[in-house]
Fold each of these.
Amino acid sequence: MEKFVIVGGNRLKGTIKANGSKNASLPILAATLLTGGVCTVHQVPRLKDIMVMQELLAYLGAKVNFEGHTMTVDCSNVQPQEISEDIMRKMRASNLVLGPILGRFGNVKISHPGGCNIGSRPMNLHLKGLVSMGAEISEKFGYITAEASQLVGTVIHLDVPSVGATENLIMAGILANGTTVIRNAAKEPEIVDFQNFLNAMGAKVVGAGTDVIRIEGVKELGSVTHTVIPDRIEAGTHMIAGAVTRGDVTVSNVIPEHLDPLIYKLREAGVLVEVGDDWVRVQSNGTLKAVDIKTMPYPGFPTDMQSQMMALMTIAEGTSVISETIFENRFKHVPEFRRMGADIRLEGHTAIIKGVSRLSGACVEATDLRAGAALILAALAGEDGTVLSNIEHIDRGYERIEKRYNSLGARIIRVNS
């Protein structure tokens, strides 16, 4: 097991480039299963979750080549087969193979997926949608089996705008007979990028970015070359790294409008944010001000930025209130912040944070991906040294974050336990 040893107190300064989006890359790579052609995807981040998807595609018979940040996938020899728990439990997004395999081959059997334990993320929305398209679903001994000689387009109304269910049902509708309409669909930018990728392969999908997505079934898809959009969550984490260290950090390779909710809150907190065509610059020299936050589906404040923003609020002047409306277990980082001297009180799904003048170093644990990133931010702002364990969570979503922050002036060392 590896750990980070972090010496806080250094002001970060310089430019850091955001990588391609993890949450866009994963469904795009799963969608390569829909075609017998060759798909080349640029700006794919080299993350543990991406490596798991690469392993999963290879397990199914795909030829995968991953060099630098470009992945080439040839699914011409893919065959449906039972996907074991060993692979599925490594990553939540492994469930995204359900829709494309069922749509292309008519049958699929997968184990229930794993992922961060941040709250209930059931498969029921995915399965209800597939059943309405004519699939027969059975669940036994931790496995999901789905069969359909031919999926048929229909109107699906999601109970909540689930990103994963939206993506899976889009893929199921690509090769279905007729038109599929998904209402109350998720509207995240990653789904717009996903639509662009699919349409470049020959799919007919419209409406991504709105709450109604329409998919007209086609007979087959072809080859494609695509560049993934920048990762807005990674970019946002870098922005807060600049703010929490009272530094001067420019984040390049971003789509600024994807960061609007965070930019608004940072400015409200007294941080200077300058916005360019494909970059943002964060400067913070004065006192940080407490702000209130409520996580919401896009275009609201993202739940994936909640813990990082809480790290900033622990040293802001005044009292801030953060309400988590997406996942019920997404405050597991609070006890770790308290170890570092933060003053946080929990009331149900609400955290009340009274800012302190300084955090202190401590031995803390990353409980999930975004909590791990937030603890790095807190440690950078703290006094003395912090030892952060369970950093394998962080490697799932951030590519060698210690090297990149060290280039800005941080002092982070990766060590073996």
Amino acid sequence: MAAIEFHGTTILGIVRDGKAVIGGDGQVTFGQNTVMKHTATKVRRLYHNKVLAGFAGSVADALTLFELFEGKLEESHGNLQRAAVALSRQWRTDRMLGKLEALLLVADTEHLFILSGTGEVIEPDDYIAAIGSGGSYALAAARAFSSIEPPMPLEDLVRRSLDIAADICIYTNHHLTIETLN
């Protein structure tokens, strides 16, 4: 018998003009057809409210990664880039951590990174990134909204993009958590 998987979510982040916004939905799906929770919080503030982080994947794995990442932030005195590289290096090389099934999206007011267990530390050229099952939809919407003049407030851009993802992706809902750093 195959293991039943938890599916979800959509996390979207944008950094622009000294401001960072990360948002995510609240759905946790068990197997292919059962919504177990509608209001999970998958975005949080870290390191004295100076860093935002969101996760997609296994909740227990992501909570472990949040804790490790916050430790790396403390060790690097809040240097997001150093902490991201240190976590990815440990995640890739540690046998137990290598089994964790999650992705992290982390940001401060200058940087935005996607972190994975394969050692990837990706900083997108346009400072817009998304992860999770609806990530491609949210990313496409965010890039389209970003081209509109005058520019839309980042919180609105993230909210509207996540709503579009929720309309398309069955593992994403409209219960959104959006965090902002100025």
Amino acid sequence: MLFALTGRVALVTGASGALGRHFCRVLHQAGARVALAARRPEAVAALAAELGEGAIAVALDVTQEASIAAALAAVQARLGPPAILVNNAGIAATRPFLEHTAADWDQVMAVDLRGAFLVAQATARAMVAAGQGGAIVNVASILGARVIPGVAGYAAAKAGLIQLTRQMAVELARHRIRVNALAPGYIATDINADFFASEPGQAMVKRIPQRRLGQAQDLTGPLLLLASDAGAHMTGSVLTVDGGHSINSL
């Protein structure tokens, strides 16, 4: 019962991606009414239908304030005021630093940091207006604390998101809104399957102390901890789920 989310309304951004879809399933199975948000709602309509009652698909472009306002209005009209936000939308531009363009930088920052800020702020305002408190989970990355070649914008954005999490936690605590970051390591998805099957990918896996990639289900418990009353005294925390990768100096 400590991890139950019965009756709470959750908004998940980036719901069309592999992790976003998993987060939506987890929250719905825990009893939440879930808004699956994506730039193209048709991309998540089938999942919303599969989840059934209490699950809706909404259009949301995290880079556009008008789109965020419209999505929150739809969520409140159809499900009720949000009590949980999973700020999951994110992109990456992969190229060496000397080839990383200003356009690459701007695009990643617009989604991964500015977009996360805009959605969190609008949702927090709705939570304050409802007077019920809430939980915000910003999906960061271990690359917010360590680096690998080729992802300058992404690493900088995730580092910024972690610091934004702490700032929000301090300011929103008086409104009974908890703000924490979930920082996954390398999680197996269809998109990265070919890379991790390659020689460089296998070498990277060998540097993980547990000697395996994370699976989406490895994030289930951590997500529920941060979203539910089980984490009632946690705010401003960064919960790392990476098989020990970020503490390994090799």
Amino acid sequence: MKQENLLVVATLYKFVSLPDFAEMRDPWLSYCQQQGIKGTILLAQEGINGTIVGSRQAIDAVLEFLRSDPRLADLEHKESYTETPPFERMKVRLKSEIVTLGLPEVDPNQQVGNYVSPQEWNELISDPEVIVIDTRNDYEVNIGTFKKAQNPQTHSFREFPDYVRHNLDPSKHKKIAMFCTGGIRCEKASSYMLSQGFAEVYHLKGGILKYLEEVPAQESLWEGECFVFDERVAVRHGLENGSYEMCQSCGRPISAVDKTSPQYEAGISCPYCFDSLTEDKRVRQQEKRRQFLLKSNRKNK
């Protein structure tokens, strides 16, 4: 299908001081709804974080609207395309943090690590003195990461400070390089690490997605696929669609091998959530699956 016939998915974030963020919610929500936009935008005093989907014209109008605020004039975004919207409605939510570390005093608007371009990243992480850390959650790391990167084995970003306290020492680990999907977690992680006395802290500008977009596969130090928070589930080099699907019950990425497990039931459970699936949730998932199949059948008629 031609790109012009597809919906545009725009992901965006920016750490910027927004003391009036609560007053911004209603006009932002109203404007997005007027344009037929769906998705979620998080607003906090520390900035903005969101993913929205709509027509090319609608997305361009909303981005222009957001950037009309001088504080967001340089707001960057990334785009992908979809045939069907991955969101059912538009939400603008007020939060204490746009990415939850659990330490609101950590403020990337005050200090942040050194940005490293995708083109410079390989040289940095190939330095034997550099500790390379994947700041994403465990299930994301398991389907792909950079060579020699440490996996903190966190289930949420809130656990990252504990990992640092128990595994890293600013007097011993002089150079730290971090990365995440799009860059937002690393900005906050680098701010936290600077506050803990780490002197040289680096992070990948634009995240893994920008690296996979710009660095040729033959030069890449990336291994596996990159989990993304939309219907693509995972992407490869060049941001081509990956091989994973998403468990509709727990949201984990599942491989072709996972689907051969007796614990896998389409739309109901997978090997990662089978043991924790209650009977009530099983019934709810079965009903969701039934509705999904009915909707699909109507579309195909």
